[in-house]
Amino acid sequence: AHHGLATVNHKKGHYRSAIHNIEKSLDYLINNQTNQHHPLISQCFNDLAYNHFKLENHLTAFNFYEKALN
Predict the structure, then answer these.
(1) Are 53 and 14 in contact (CB under 8 A)?
(2) What's the per-residue H, E or C state across 12-49?
(3) Of 63, 45, 50, the residue nearest 13 (C-alpha)
(4) DSSP state of 2
(5) What is the pLDDT of residues 45-69, one digit of tens each?
(6) Does an H or E element contain 10, and which?
(7) Cβ–Cβ < 8 Å for 55, 15
(8) For residue 70, how far is the Cα from the chain centroid?
């Protein structure tokens, strides 16, 4: 649910809200043992990177892009 909200936030240009919702989604996915290899984890890192990029937090964006690839 939070990842969907983040998508809406991003489309409206509310990048900080998008980051907040992605972090909630990611926290759930990482802390739930049945989801530790879920493909949405990589997508969350990619989306975090893109939202940080839009906020001109380029170093943070780069770090999240690297996590998305791993």
Answers:
(1) no
(2) CCCHHHHHHHHHHHHHHHHHCHHHCCCHHHHHHHHHHH
(3) 50
(4) H
(5) 999 999 999 999 999 999 999 999 9
(6) helix 2-11
(7) yes
(8) 14
Virtual torsion, Cα 38, 57, 54, 6, nearest 10 deg: 40
How far apart are the C-alpha atoms of 4 and 18, rounded to whole Å?
9
The four Cα atoms 18, 12, 58, 47 give a dihedral, to 10 degrees, of 50
CA gap 18, 26 in Å, rounded = 12
- DSSP symbol at 70: -
Which DSSP state fits 59?
H
- pLDDT tens, residue by residue, 3-58: 899 999 999 999 999 999 999 999 998 888 777 678 899 999 999 999 999 999 99
